[in-house]
Design brief:
This protein has 462 residues and is α/β, with parallel strands linked by helices. It is built from 21 helices and 10 strands. Helix 2 runs antiparallel to helix 12, helix 3 crosses helix 12 and helix 9 packs across helix 10. The longest helix has 24 residues.
C-alpha cells in the first residue's frame, strides 16, 4: 500500500492542520445531522418507512436480474437506447463513443457520483471534450480542480470567502465579494450560457423504475432538467443497484432521501425522464463496476441498498473531523469505506479502519444498512487477505495474543500500569500517536477485576 497517498490517517492529518476549519466543518455537518433528526421525528411511522425501504431494496437485490431485464425492455419501448457496462473503462468508452458520434466538443453534466467513481471527466477531457459540471457545489470544486468531498454537499469543506475568490478568478466577479446570494446569481448567469450552448447532457439517476422504464433524478437546482431538456443528446448513467420495482415505491424513497440528506421535506425537483423528446436521443448506461461482486458477498450485499443520502457522513465523528478528501475515493465516509474495498481491496485497505465503530452511521441510514458491522467485517477480511499494513498486522497479532489468554491479559495489565506510573515518558512521548493530541490517563493502582473481587467480597461479608 502506498502510505503517502492512500493512508487515511495521514490525509486526515493534513486536514487537521487547520483547526478552525476542522471545527467549522464538524459543527456544520452536525447542524445538518440535527436538521435530519427534526425531520425524522416529524414523520409518524419514520421507522416503518425505513423498514419498508430496506425490505424493498432487499427484494430487488434478490431479483436484480429480472428487474434489470424488465427495465431494459420498457426503456427500449419508450425509445431509449440501453447500454451495459461491465466496468468503469467500458462505461467511459460507451459515453465517449456516443459523444464522438455526435461530434460533441462541449457538454453539461449534472451531479453523478457514478461518473466520479468512473473518472469520466478526465477521460473525456483527455479526448478533447470539455465537461461543465452544473450542480453549484460540483462546479465550485471543478473550478478549484478538486474532487467532491461529500456526495450531497460536494464543497462543504470550502468557506464562502474561498468561493468568492474562485468566482473572481474564473467568472470575473468583484474581488472580495463573498455574499452567497450574489455568488449564486453569478453562477446562475454563468451556467445559463453553458446550458444553451452545450451539445449534450449527462445526468445521474437516483431511482430507475423497472415497470415503466423511467428514471428519476433529484436535484435542488433543476440543473438536470435544464441540461436534459435543452441538449440534443441525453446520456443517463446509473449503477445497476438503482432499480426499484414500481413507481408506487418512489413514495417511500423520496420521503426518506431529502430528509436524511439535508433535513428537507423533499428535494426541490424530482424529475422523471421516460422517453426522448422529438429529435433527441436518450441513452441509458447501466453500469456494474464491481456491484455484481458485492452482490455475491453475503456479508456486504446490504451496502448496495444505499440511496446516496450522505446521512452517515454527517453523523460520523471521524468524517466530520477528517474531511471527505482523506478517504481518497469518490464516495467518502462510512458508506464509502464499505463500498471502496470491493473495488480494490489493496488500495482502500485503510478505509474500514477510519471509524470508531460507534454505530451512529447505521442508526441514521434510511435503508437500514448495517454499516458499522460491515466496517468491522471488512477489517477482518483485509487482515486475513494480507492487505493490512505491517504495523497494523503486528499490533492486531499482539492484541490477539493478549486478549485470548486471561493470564496474559492480567500480566500485561499489571506491567502496563507499572510502566505508566514508574516511567510515564515511555508512553507519553511523540512516538505515541494517541499522546499527540491527548493527555494519557493516570494509571489506576489496581485493575477493575481486582477492585471488583475485593469490593464484592466486602459486600457479601457485610
Amino acid at each position: 500500500m502506498n502510505s503517502t497517498i492512500h493512508d487515511h490517517a495521514a490525509l486526515a492529518g493534513k486536514f487537521n492542520e487547520n483547526e478552525p476549519r476542522v471545527n467549522w466543518h464538524d459543527e456544520t455537518l452536525w447542524w445538518v445531522r440535527k436538521k435530519r433528526d427534526r425531520m425524522a421525528w416529524s414523520v409518524s411511522g419514520w421507522e416503518q418507512l425505513r423498514e419498508a425501504a430496506s425490505q424493498i431494496k432487499r427484494h430487488v437485490l434478490g431479483n436484480l436480474h429480472d428487474y434489470l431485464t424488465q427495465f431494459e425492455q420498457q426503456a427500449i419501448q419508450n425509445g431509449a437506447t440501453v447500454h451495459w457496462a461491465a466496468d468503469a473503462a467500458e462505461h467511459n468508452k460507451i459515453v465517449l463513443d456516443i459523444l464522438q458520434r455526435h461530434n460533441v466538443k462541449r457538454m453539461v453534466k449534472s451531479k453523478s457520483m457514478l461518473t466520479e467513481e468512473c473518472h469520466l471527466n478526465p477521460h473525456l477531457e483527455a479526448h478533447g471534450i470539455e465537461v461543465i459540471d452544473t450542480d453549484l457545489g460540483e462546479r465550485i470544486v471543478q473550478l478549484a480542480k478538486e474532487p467532491p468531498s461529500h456526495i450531497v454537499l460536494p464543497c462543504i469543506h470550502k468557506k464562502k470567502e474561498e468561493i468568492g475568490e474562485l468566482f473572481h478568478e474564473h467568472l470575473g466577479t468583484p474581488a472580495g465579494n463573498a455574499d452567497p446570494q450574489f455568488l449564486t446569481a453569478a453562477a446562475r448567469q454563468h451556467l445559463r450560457k453553458e446550458f444553451l450552448e452545450a451539445d449534450a447532457a449527462i445526468t445521474g439517476v437516483n431511482f430507475a423504475v423497472a415497470a415503466t422504464g423511467e428514471m428519476v433524478v433529484c436535484t435542488n437546482e433543476g440543473n438536470a432538467d435544464m441540461g436534459a431538456h435543452l441538449a440534443k443528446v441525453h446520456i443517463a448513467c446509473m449503477g445497476i443497484e438503482k432499480i426499484i420495482p414500481q413507481r408506487a415505491h418512489l413514495g417511500v424513497f423520496l420521503r426518506l432521501l431529502a430528509r436524511s440528506a439535508t433535513g428537507q421535506p423533499i428535494t426541490t425537483y424530482s424529475s422523471h425522464f421516460r422517453q426522448p423528446r422529438a429529435g433527441q436521443e436518450l441513452h441509458i448506461v447501466l453500469v456494474d463496476n464491481g456491484r455484481s461482486r458485492q452482490l455475491g458477498r453475503e456479508d456486504f450485499r446490504n451496502s448496495l441498498k444505499c440511496i446516496r443520502c450522505g446521512a452517515c457522513m454527517n453523523t460520523c465523528p471521524v468524517y466530520r473531523r477528517s474531511g471527505g478528501h482523506s478517504y481518497h475515493t469518490a464516495v467518502a465516509g462510512p458508506i464509502g469505506s464499505i463500498l471502496a474495498p470491493n473495488l480494490d481491496m489493496k488500495d482502500y485497505a485503510d478505509l474500514p479502519f477510519a471509524s470508531t465503530l460507534c454505530g451512529s452511521c447505521s442508526n441514521v441510514c434510511p435503508v437500514k444498512i448495517d454499516i458499522h458491522q460491515q466496517l468491522y467485517k471488512w477489517r477482518q477480511v483485509i487482515v486475513k487477505e494480507g492487505y493490512a499494513t505491517t504495523g497494523k498486522k503486528m499490533g492486531m497479532q499482539m492484541m490477539t495474543t493478549v486478549l485470548s489468554s486471561p493470564k496474559t491479559f492480567k500480566t500485561a495489565g499489571k506491567m502496563g500500569r507499572w510502566v505508566l506510573r514508574a516511567f510515564p515518558g515511555m508512553v507519553n512521548n511523540r512516538m505515541n500517536p494517541w499522546y499527540k493530541q491527548r493527555n494519557m490517563p493516570e494509571a489506576p493502582k489496581v485493575s477493575f477485576a481486582e477492585w471488583y473481587a475485593k469490593n464484592n467480597n466486602n459486600e457479601q461479608q457485610g
